[in-house]
Design goal:
This protein is α/β, with parallel strands linked by helices. The protein folds into two domains: about 130 residues, Enolase-like, domain 1, CATH 3.30.390.10; about 220 residues, Enolase-like C-terminal domain (TIM Barrel). The protein contains twelve helices and 15 strands. The strands form four sheets. Strands 5-6-7-8-9-10-11 form a seven-stranded parallel beta sheet. The protein has a four-stranded antiparallel beta sheet with strand order 3-2-1-15, sandwiched between helices. Strands 4-13 form a two-stranded antiparallel ribbon. Strand 2 and strand 3 form a beta hairpin. Helix 1 crosses helix 3 and helix 9 runs parallel beside helix 10. The chain is globular and about 55 Å long. Bound molecules: 2-succinylbenzoate and magnesium ion (MG). The site of 2-succinylbenzoate has 11 residues, from loops.
Amino acid sequence: MKIDAIHMREVNMPLAFPFETSFGVTTGRRILLIEIEAEGLSAWGECVAGEHPYFSDEMVDTAWHITETELAPRLLNQEISGGRDCPALFEQVRGHRMAKAALENAVWELDALRQGIPLAKLLGGTQATIPCGVSIGIQPTPEKLMEKIETEVAAGYQRIKLKCKPGWDDKIFEMVRKRWPDILLSCDANSAYRLGDAEQIAAWDRFNLLMIEQPLWYDDFYFHATLQKQIQTKICLDECIRNGRDARAALELGSGKIINVKVGRVGGFTEAIAVHDVAQEFGVPVWCGGMLETGIGRAHNIALSSLPNFLLPGDVSASKRYWAQDIIEPEVTVSAKGEITVPTTPGRGFEIQRDRIEAITVRWRSL
Ligand code: OSB
Ligand code: MG
């Protein structure tokens, strides 16, 4: 296929609820969306770079710049066979994986459309439904957190993940476990701890957490191995895994026992599949992380989550937990059993709501 046009847009969407992590509060999203055209078809990609370079070194403005000046020109007018050709096209540009992923994922989506098959199938998906969990941000009060958990457990979500940081940890876990001794519970520190906290973290073993996500430095998986040796609870790696090679090195080192796969963090579906495959080889389960995506990124996460080694509930949840109005139709819904059905129609399996996107677009550029 030849890529005939690439359209960039930034949309601004207020979040239905503020989301607080150890690095700050998000109340609304600025999101770079990509639309590509080829063979008379149109497909979309979502860039998961945040408003600030706090989760990773990328942010929406760097992604915009790199896409416009470096990445889109390398893809435009190229004759390619599919998304797997993108990493080589972008290879000269170091880093900027979230920007690369938005373009590559749009190519995968277009390829699925032109073959008339679901994106999930093109990626190698085998599961018809995916188990869903939720990520619950740091709340203004412990009472508010308890209310949130109550709501999500009642909605059927299969795993509750609590964002944590020093001061919002032991006491909170204690409270939650007292009320819900048996739910599948995990925590995500987003790098808020250091090796000096190992003793404190080891004491969390008593809470029977499914995992502790990225407790130490965002760019480290060496010292995570040191920590993993001192605790029973499994470490799950998020921020530090940039590609399949990192995954292999981390698993050889024993840095963690679970991996969170985020397609944006690793640069696109090709590398996300590579991480999935490495983990599978090590007998390590993966799950699909979330980055407060709109329906476009969410649909892509659903397709990815259908691969066979996605064995734990992911952070892929219903549109209404994030948005008053999503930009796809129908919006993503979760069953009372806490599952999302993987679409079986060609491409992403959800329609783009163009009028809605037009209404919230604040800048655009066509190449
Ligand atoms: O670490 O998983 C993370 C959101 C923004 C940045 C980092 C993370 C998150 C989440 C949100 O946990 C998960 C979701 O989209 O529901
Ligand atoms: Mg995380």
